[in-house]
Amino acid sequence: MLKTENLSVYYNDFLALESVSFSIGKGTMTGIIGPNGAGKSTLLKAMLHIVSHQGTVLIDHKESKKQLKKVAYVEQKAAIDYTFPIEVRECVSLGTYAEKKLFQRITDKEWAKVTEALKMVDLEEYAHEQIGALSGGQFQRVLIARCLVQNAEYIFLDEPFVGIDSVSERIIMRTLKQLKAEGKTILIVHHDLSKVSDYFDEVLIINKNLITHGSVTAVFTEENLQEAYGDTLFIGKGGGAT
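The chain above was modelled as a monomer; its predicted structure follows.
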C-alpha cells in the first residue's frame, strides 16, 4: 500500500504541492493527471525523497525512505542522458544493483533475467547495441526492462509515453498490464486524457492540491477535469490536454 498524508512541497517560496493525502492499494495502475505545473512529477519525487517535503509518505505501512528498494523509478526521458556509452543489456542490468553489495558482480542467472526482460519488451536483438543508437521509444522500453529486472513491487513512471512511437507505447502498456496482473503497483504521470479510461484503474487528479482520487469510472468526470484544468481543458479524439 502507498499512502501520503498532508504532503506539501515548496521550492524556496514557491508552493509546488499542498497537503496531498491519498492511499493506493496493491495491484493497481494509477494515472496522475493535471495541467502543466500541477506538481505531478514533484509528487513522485517527494514520495521517493528526491525533493524535500513536508508530511508523511508510507510504503507498506513504513516510512518510504526505508522502503525505497521496493520501488523502481523512471524519470522523464528528457532528463536522462542516453548518449552515455553503454550497451542496452548493460543498461538493463543496472536493475540488479539494488540488491548488490559494492563491487559484487552480476551472475549468470541475473544476465538470464536481463535477456528475458529484453524479450518482454521486444528488444532482445538490440542487446549489444549502444543505447544512443535507439529511438526514443526503444530507449523507453529499455528503461521498462530495467524495472523488470529490478523486480520492484512499486513502479513509478514519469511521462513514459511522451515523444515515443505507437508501437513502443503499445508494448510498454502490454508489459505494465502484465506486471499489474502479477500484483505490482504502478503510478504513471500521464498527459493524454483520451487514453485514461483504457490505461488506468484509478486516477489522481491534481493541481497543486488533490482535486480527487478514485476509480476512473467514478472520478474521471468533466466536472473534476474542469476544476483541475479550467480554461486549458481540451479533450478530443486521440488527443490530450494542454
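The two ends are 31 Å apart (CA to CA).
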